[in-house]
Specification:
- The structure holds two protein chains of two kinds.
- Chain A is an alpha+beta fold.
- Chain A is rod-shaped.
- In chain A, strand 3 and strand 4 form a beta hairpin.
- Chain A starts with 7 loop residues before the first strand and ends with a strand.
- Chain A is built from one helix and nine strands; from the N terminus they run E-E-H-E-E-E-E-E-E-E.
- By secondary structure, chain B is of the alpha+beta class.
- Chain B has two domains: 98 residues, Immunoglobulin-like; 93 residues, Immunoglobulin-like.
- In chain B, strands 3, 4, 6, 7, 8 and 9 form a six-stranded antiparallel sheet that branches. Chain B has a four-stranded antiparallel sheet with strand order 12-11-14-15, with no helix packed on it.
- The radius of gyration of chain B is 35 Å and the shape is elongated.
- Chain B starts with a helix and ends with a strand.
- Classes of the chains: A alpha+beta, B alpha+beta.
């Protein structure tokens, strides 16, 4: 079968379709149209890839940020929870006089809570701190710790205020009148 | 042509659908878990808060009556603890101050177990240093309460001990108005045995609030006392104003007797 190179015959598949007789120019147009289709597919792939990439990045960022926020939130709330759980008191105070205006003060602090605490102690006389222990001593749960202080310039019937402050910020007071 | 456009439109939808899927995935894997996590943490905080409130409430409900009395001529001490609350109470320490020197009793055998409500525990024969002394006792509980002895301070010297008896009969006198009240009464009690009989004139000078004045008469031991109270006028027993039997027990260590108001 010989083929006329000048013309080509396109035979549509439909039953009633007519034969279309095209030239090389129409063939080129068709090819161009196909190329346009190809570029739209490529564009679509690029778009999908971009959406996938951005989505994945956004998802990873969200996960990371969520993890960060979770940790941050837990740290803040756990500090409050531990603060809520702290329970302690000044259980007993004793004073041993060593001179006319000096002596040693013994303060017993009882931790009756379920968690360990770290405390600083301050002894006030007339609103001024006359002795302190800011070592942040640890008192384990359900135990009692004695804090000794050497006091000067105190006299009988002086009223001392004992302030116990935990490192989590809770405060408890006791008072004692020197006998 | 129409078919191609439709196909293109549908291809564009793939990216939108993909984007939407990512959005849903982000919501499901980050926002929802974050919300649930925050909710759980808040629940934990609230639960802890409630738990500690309950703990504080129980702590405030604790109530112990502590009575101490010397034995063996003042060389030892009995400590009687009655749980007046509706909760079990665990005594963790007993502080005994003898002339301002503190002794602490821990791991006490008699107090190994908690004291159930409305029951008593007695720590017997706690040794004391010899000689004249002022003794003060207080007990500490596991919930962080401290209860001082009703008989603080006790003056113990030689073979006897001071006037601050561990038990008292409280004479309650009504008054028609608030303000200073002066009254002299004569109180007599007959103890469970003859050695415990006592009588004396009691001067009452008190600033009366809410219409009552109080006078306490110490009794040395538990038991039933026959109490008689007279108004004392012009230096002698004038009018009999009260007579009855009064029981002094660990349950009611300071019973009250009411006498008529000053006429």
């Amino acid at each position: 079968m010989s083929v006329n190179l000048k013309t080509w015959v396109e035979r549509p598949k439909g039953k009633f379709s007519k034969f279309r007789v095209g030239s090389w120019s129409s063939l080129a147009r068709t090819a161009l149209r196909d190329r346009r289709a190809l570029s739209s597919v490529i564009g679509e792939i690029i778009l999908c890839t971009s959406v996938f990439g951005i989505g994945t990045a956004l998802w990873a960022f969200s996960r990371g940020y969520m993890s960060y926020e979770m940790t941050n939130y837990w740290q803040k709330v756990s500090v409050n929870i531990y603060g809520l759980k702290e329970r302690f008191m000044v259980e007993n105070v004793a004073f041993n006089s060593t001179g006319t205006s000096s002596g040693s003060l013994h303060v017993w602090v009882y931790n009756y809570g379920d968690i360990d605490i770290q405390v600083n102690l301050y002894i006030f006389l007339n609103g001024s701190v006359i002795a302190e222990d800011v070592s942040g001593a640890t008192i384990t749960s359900k135990s009692i710790v004695e804090f000794p202080f050497d006091l000067n310039e105190v006299s009988t019937s002086n009223e001392l205020v004992i302030k116990v402050e935990t490192l989590r910020g809770n405060v408890n007071y006791g008072s004692y009148t020197i006998p | 042509m129409v078919h191609t456009r439709s196909l293109r439109r549908s291809r564009s939808a793939i990216a939108s659908v993909l984007g939407m899927l990512f959005l849903v995935a982000i919501v499901c894997t980050t926002v929802v878990p974050l919300f649930l996590y925050v909710n759980n943490v808040n629940n934990l905080y609230n639960h802890t808060d409630e738990e500690m409130r309950e703990f504080d409430r129980e702590r405030s409900l604790e109530s112990l009556a502590v009575y101490t009395y010397p034995i063996e001529n003042g060389s030892a001490l009995n400590i009687h603890i009655r749980n007046k609350s509706s909760l079990n109470v665990k005594v963790v320490r007993i502080w005994i101050a003898v002339n301002e020197t503190y002794y602490v009793l821990t791991n006490i055998t008699a107090l190994e177990d908690e004291i159930p409500p409305a029951t008593e525990a007695t720590v017997s024969e706690v040794g004391l240093p010899p000689g004249e002394k002022i003794v003060k006792v207080k007990v500490a509980t596991s919930r962080g309460n401290v209860f001082v002895s009703e008989t603080n301070p006790m003056y113990i010297w030689g073979e006897s001990w001071g006037p601050s008896y561990p038990f008292t009969i409280t004479v309650v006198m009504g008054s028609k108005k608030s303000g200073w009240m002066q009254r002299t009464i004569y109180v007599e009690y007959l103890g469970p045995d003859e050695s415990l009989n006592w009588n004396n004139t009691v001067e009452v000078t008190q600033l009366v609030h809410e219409g009552y004045a109080y006078a306490s008469v110490g009794v040395p031991l538990l038991g039933v006392y026959s109490v008689t109270v007279w108004d004392n006028k012009l230096g002698y027993k004038h009018d009999l104003i009260f007579t009855d039997s009064v029981a002094v027990s660990y349950t009611i260590p300071s019973p009250w007797v009411y006498v008529p108001p000053w006429p």
